[in-house]
């Protein structure tokens, strides 16, 4: 798929939707419920829904489930956010990204129905997505929370077949609270009465909050370490629960944290009878799942060609402290297998815990090159990010962009050529994929 140029009619319409509310984020269910009622409640006509919340790993867990279900012959809708390059990435109808024409039609119908009432961009686009999902047949719908859970626009689905909660950590404190307990309370807001809740590895404090919420709603709980287990063993993924043990391939997606995400996907497929697929389908899903900008190797492309020959370029959208720990662990594994000097090219939003993200790379990365995040987002000034990196003991510098940072590696006096990780923001990752010409499909 080639990169498009210019501003499309879809881009113009999406920009118009952005002007319907003065805030980008305003967590509430009232506006969403009003609009959906006016649209005829499409959220009540969806295929069986698996609702997924959490801080880290939502997209990867969803990708494993989708790949396994599709390998088992199921038609799967998927709703994710944010997108990396094109908005269409958020809506997958029975396995295919929504076309511009279908998306435009749904957005225009939703906009007319909304009649210029105040509503956030995520709410109005989620309503349009529900309209599309309700009009196209599928066997399962995988629904990712946008932010939090309790007041997220996706939490209007009254009776999902499963609620899934991936690992919880500190992030988005201005919306969800400053403690793990408070954030877990928001995430646990997706738990519905009598609907099974499948839970990934959690801090004890977060798990306690989830357990209480599940008990109040009489929702069967399937928690990692209690009801199911997963671990890497001899290059394989070994999963076990009360129904037995599965010896599975190691995930295609890189990093030890992907063992956890794949395990949570398997636990969900096995906990809900409607999601059961043969073991061969689970194996195919774990082996074949793809999720862009999650430790994605970029072997070629317009940006990569700016780097000196044999420089190894990786991309990840991780942007919080727990994401930094997972990434550092994964890069340490790579270092053990094939040693190269590690250089971080990093850009972050101003509201993120930059020190918390970078600190785990101490002793692993030689240098942090700080770059701006695309201008429409509230990025931290590269010089300020460099100050944070320097205070942590890194050698830090500033570049005007990722291309300039890669080009500057020609003067980097090391052998072998370095391993580069571009990281710190999903918005930065999306811009890199677009500029490199490696668009998600």
TrEMBL record:
State its Enzyme Commission number(s): 6.3.2.12, 6.3.2.17
What's the superkingdom here?
Bacteria
Keyword entries, A-Z: ATP-binding, Folate biosynthesis, Ligase, Magnesium, Metal-binding, Nucleotide-binding
Q: Supply the name of the protein.
A: Dihydrofolate synthase/folylpolyglutamate synthase
Q: Which NCBIfam families match?
A: folC
Q: Which reaction does it catalyse?
A: (6S)-5,6,7,8-tetrahydrofolyl-(gamma-L-Glu)(n) + L-glutamate + ATP = (6S)-5,6,7,8-tetrahydrofolyl-(gamma-L-Glu)(n+1) + ADP + phosphate + H(+); 7,8-dihydropteroate + L-glutamate + ATP = 7,8-dihydrofolate + ADP + phosphate + H(+); 10-formyltetrahydrofolyl-(gamma-L-Glu)(n) + L-glutamate + ATP = 10-formyltetrahydrofolyl-(gamma-L-Glu)(n+1) + ADP + phosphate + H(+); (6R)-5,10-methylenetetrahydrofolyl-(gamma-L-Glu)(n) + L-glutamate + ATP = (6R)-5,10-methylenetetrahydrofolyl-(gamma-L-Glu)(n+1) + ADP + phosphate + H(+)
Q: Which family does it belong to?
A: Belongs to the folylpolyglutamate synthase family.
Question: What are the GO BP annotations of this UniProt entry?
Answer: folic acid biosynthetic process
Cofactor annotation: Mg(2+)
Question: What residue stretches are annotated with the Mur ligase central domain?
Answer: 52-268
Q: In which pathway does it act?
A: Cofactor biosynthesis; tetrahydrofolylpolyglutamate biosynthesis; Cofactor biosynthesis; tetrahydrofolate biosynthesis; 7,8-dihydrofolate from 2-amino-4-hydroxy-6-hydroxymethyl-7,8-dihydropteridine diphosphate and 4-aminobenzoate: step 2/2
Q: Could you tell me what this protein does?
A: Functions in two distinct reactions of the de novo folate biosynthetic pathway. Catalyzes the addition of a glutamate residue to dihydropteroate (7,8-dihydropteroate or H2Pte) to form dihydrofolate (7,8-dihydrofolate monoglutamate or H2Pte-Glu). Also catalyzes successive additions of L-glutamate to tetrahydrofolate or 10-formyltetrahydrofolate or 5,10-methylenetetrahydrofolate, leading to folylpolyglutamate derivatives.
Q: Please tell me one Gene Ontology term that the record gives under cellular component.
A: cytoplasm
Q: Which PANTHER family match?
A: DIHYDROFOLATE SYNTHETASE-RELATED, FOLYLPOLYGLUTAMATE SYNTHASE-RELATED
What GO terms are given for molecular function?
ATP binding; dihydrofolate synthase activity; metal ion binding; tetrahydrofolylpolyglutamate synthase activity
Annotated Mur ligase C-terminal domain ranges read 309-425
| Gene3D superfamilies (UniProt xref) | Mur ligase, C-terminal domain (3.90.190.20), Mur-like, catalytic domain (3.40.1190.10)
Q: Could you read off the lineage of the organism from its UniProt record?
A: Bacteria, Pseudomonadati, Pseudomonadota, Alphaproteobacteria, Hyphomicrobiales
Q: Which organism is it from?
A: Azorhizobium oxalatiphilum
Q: Which InterPro entries match?
A: Folylpolyglutamate_synth (IPR001645), Folylpolyglutamate_synth_CS (IPR018109), Mur-like_cat_sf (IPR036565), Mur_ligase_C (IPR004101), Mur_ligase_C_dom_sf (IPR036615), Mur_ligase_cen (IPR013221)
């Amino acid at each position: 798929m080639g990169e498009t140029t210019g501003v499309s009619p879809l881009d113009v319409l999406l920009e118009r939707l952005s002007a319907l509310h003065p805030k980008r984020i305003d967590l509430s269910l009232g506006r969403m419920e009003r609009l959906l009622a006016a649209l005829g409640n499409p959220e009540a006509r969806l295929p069986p829904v698996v609702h997924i919340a959490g801080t880290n790993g939502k997209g990867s867990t969803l990708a494993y489930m989708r790949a396994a279900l599709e390998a088992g012959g199921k038609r799967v809708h998927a709703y994710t956010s944010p997108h990396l390059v094109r908005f269409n990435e958020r809506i997958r109808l029975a396995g295919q990204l929504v076309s511009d024409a279908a998306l435009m039609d749904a957005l225009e119908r939703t906009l007319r129905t909304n009649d210029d009432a105040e509503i956030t961009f995520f709410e109005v686009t989620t309503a349009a997505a529900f309209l599309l999902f309700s009009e196209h047949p599928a066997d399962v719908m995988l629904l990712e929370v946008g932010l939090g859970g309790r007041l997220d626009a996706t939490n209007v689905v009254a009776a999902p077949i499963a609620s899934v909660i991936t690992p919880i950590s500190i992030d988005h404190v201005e919306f969800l609270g400053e403690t793990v307990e408070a954030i877990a309370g928001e995430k646990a807001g997706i738990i519905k009465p009598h609907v099974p809740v499948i839970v990934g590895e959690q801090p004890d404090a977060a798990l306690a909050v989830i357990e209480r919420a599940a008990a109040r709603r009489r929702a069967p709980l399937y928690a990692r370490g209690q009801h199911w287990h997963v671990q890497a063993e001899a290059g394989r993924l070994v999963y076990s629960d009360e129904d037995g043990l599965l010896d599975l391939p190691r995930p295609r997606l890189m990093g030890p944290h992907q063992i956890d995400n794949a395990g949570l996907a398997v636990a969900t497929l096995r906990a809900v009878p409607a999601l059961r697929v043969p073991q061969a389908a689970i194996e195919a899903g774990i082996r074949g799942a793809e999720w862009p900008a999650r430790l994605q190797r970029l072997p070629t492309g317009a940006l990569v060609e700016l780097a000196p020959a044999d420089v190894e370029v990786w991309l990840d959208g991780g942007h919080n402290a727990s994401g930094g720990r997972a990434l550092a662990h994964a890069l340490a594994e790579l270092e053990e297998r094939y040693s190269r000097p590690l250089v971080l090219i990093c850009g972050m939003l101003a509201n993120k815990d930059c020190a918390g993200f970078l600190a785990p790379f101490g002793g692993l990365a030689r240098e942090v090159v700080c770059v701006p995040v695309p201008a429409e987002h509230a990025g931290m000034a590269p010089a300020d990010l460099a100050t944070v990196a320097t205070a942590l003991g890194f050698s830090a510098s500033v570049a005007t962009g990722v291309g300039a940072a890669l080009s500057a590696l020609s003067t980097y006096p090391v052998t072998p050529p370095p391993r580069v990780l571009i990281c710190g923001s999903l918005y930065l990752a999306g811009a890199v994929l677009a500029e490199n010409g490696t668009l998600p499909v």
